[in-house]
Amino acid sequence: MSKKDQYVIACVESAESAARVLPWARHFAECLRHKGLMALHVKRTPGDAPEWLRKLGVPYASLTGDWHTAIEGLPTAFGAILAVAAVDPTAPRSSLTHPHTLLREFRNCKTAYLVVGEDMKAGDMSDGTTPLTAALTLTHHREGREKLVWASYLARFLNYRIAIAHPDYRDEGLRQRWQNNMHFADKLFAPLEISYTAPAVDSQTRVDQAALDQLHPDLLIARTTDLRDRDLVDLLRPLPERQLLAHPSHTPLLFLNPRDDLYILCD
């Protein structure tokens, strides 16, 4: 796929959400080697695109249907390599910006998706001269490859500093498995001359939450829950990603769904 065929998609349902999402989508589109930028709007009933959408000044698609179907088709229908959406805990449940609805509609998203809140303005983004910090967690599980790949993009193209947080393992077996994952990070980052820090966090379960609490990053790369792996006890608890969305820091979250066919950049 050529670069002209790759897009950052701003998922917008109102002028208010567009005002939050578009600066981030434009910033990432420009920094990721000049990808295309497009706004996506989904309406339940047929009709013309709303006036506010036509006035955004960017290419747009206004579809009739449901968000879930549109989002699932992002890479094939629009050449998406990243989606950007707003979250608002005070929004009605019917709104895409409601945390529960957002996670439900993006559950089958094959691209990474950046979620930004009301307090995350364009000024929170790196200007290319003052590095911000992007954090991700790497544990003994095999779930970090896509997170590390996206961390490499943030470091190379957006000038982020990378922090790879991990539990402070006491068990030697778990520590060895974690170290094997860190070896992969070294193999990926070394040829690209990407440096990173590897702070330990005081948690072996809610590690992403601990990373937000203890490291205070400017952006967190997180993997969403594989619902197939949840047991009865897990079903009684809130999804970890729902708790991340509710974190008081309002940190931007770059979510990756647990899929074997995630669409990532080819640069």
Molecular structure report:
The mean pLDDT is 89. Helix 6 packs parallel to helix 7. This protein is of the alpha/beta class. The chain contains ten helices and eleven strands. Helix content is 34%, strand content 21%. The chain is globular and about 60 Å long. The protein has helices spanning 15-31, 51-54, 67-72, 74-78, 99-105, 145-158, 172-189, 207-215, 232-235, 240-245, and strands at 7-11, 36-43, 60-64, 80-87, 112-117, 133-137, 161-167, 196-197, 200-201, 219-223, 253-256. Strands 1, 2, 3, 4, 5, 6, 7, 8, 9, 10 and 11 form an eleven-stranded mixed β-sheet that branches.
N- to C-terminal distance: 10 Å
* β-strand amount: 15-25%
Stretches with pLDDT under 50, minimum 5 residues:
none
Mean pLDDT: 89
Shape: globular
Give me the secondary-structure category. Answer: alpha/beta
Radius of gyration: 18 Å
The count of DSSP E runs of length 2 or more, i.e. the number of strands, is: 11
Main sheet characteristics: 11 strands, mixed
Topology:
Layout: E1 7-11, H1 15-31, E2 36-43, H2 51-54, E3 60-64, H3 67-72, H4 74-78, E4 80-87, H5 99-105, E5 112-117, E6 133-137, H6 145-158, E7 161-167, H7 172-189, E8 196-197, E9 200-201, H8 207-215, E10 219-223, H9 232-235, H10 240-245, E11 253-256
Parallel strand pairs: 1-2, 1-4, 2-3, 4-5, 6-7, 6-10, 7-8, 7-9, 10-11
Antiparallel strand pairs: 5-11
